[in-house]
Amino acid sequence: MDDYLAINRAGWDERAPAHAASPDYAVERFIEDPEFISGVVSFDRERLGDLDGLTGVHLQCHIGTDTLSLARLGASMTGLDFSAESLEQARTLAERLGSPTRFVQSEVYRALEVLPAGSFDLVYTGIGALCWLPDINRWAEVVTALLRPGGRLFIREAHPMLDALDDQLAEPLVLAHPYFERAEPTIWNEGGTYVRTDQVFATTMSVQWSHSLGETITALLDRGMQLTQLVEHDSVPWSAFPAHMTCDDRGEWRLTDRPWRLAASFTLQATRLPLR
Prior knowledge:
Blueprint: H1 4-21, H2 27-32, H3 39-43, H4 45-48, E1 55-59, H5 65-72, E2 76-81, H6 84-97, E3 102-105, E4 120-125, H7 136-146, E5 147-158, H8 160-164, E6 186-189, E7 205-208, H9 213-221, E8 225-233, E9 245-247, E10 253-255, E11 265-272
Parallel strand pairs: 1-2, 1-4, 2-3, 4-5
Antiparallel strand pairs: 5-11, 6-7, 8-11, 9-10
Helix pairs in contact: 1-6, 7-9
């Protein structure tokens, strides 16, 4: 689908102000508490390690709360997103926080047109990003090109097993959507969003793709990356199946009934091998 960028950008542009106003993104907490970091970043705090002095880029950063959280942990961050309205919200928050974090507009596959190649110690990608990209191999090329030799990729992402399930989560669990990447996208027509908001949205169509765990890892390995960590989790930071999930005290949602049945998200780290 050639116009997928325009379709998806329209949806994110419309939803960005509602996301910034929703308590789920906790924008006011960032302003009130200089040590507050987002739940997504907090979940992986130990795995992220020491970020002091690192130069990082957050691909598909949306309204910047994870980007600014990484900056609060010591990294010099740049956020990249294709949605102008999302970046407006991110820049407004950065200004209110007095953060030097920079935000630039581009779709992921053209990131090297606005960012210098081989200049980042850290490439970060958060929850709900890869499904908007049609080709995981092109993504891996961009990630590798952005990293300096020895630099690190860090991902926390929804597990493709979760995305393959029937969105109504009937019992028994039904595989209704692709697990592997396909040229044909999945077209969604939904008027809502994943955070609490009373806003009604006019833009309802979105275009998404699946990428298996193996496809993602292989794409990185084929481009000179070395896998250093892969952890699968039984939880995600949103209610993917509202009638069937329970939230814990960290804001993570898992199946209420036998959560060990489902790999819901994963954390992956990989390093660009030094040049020889």
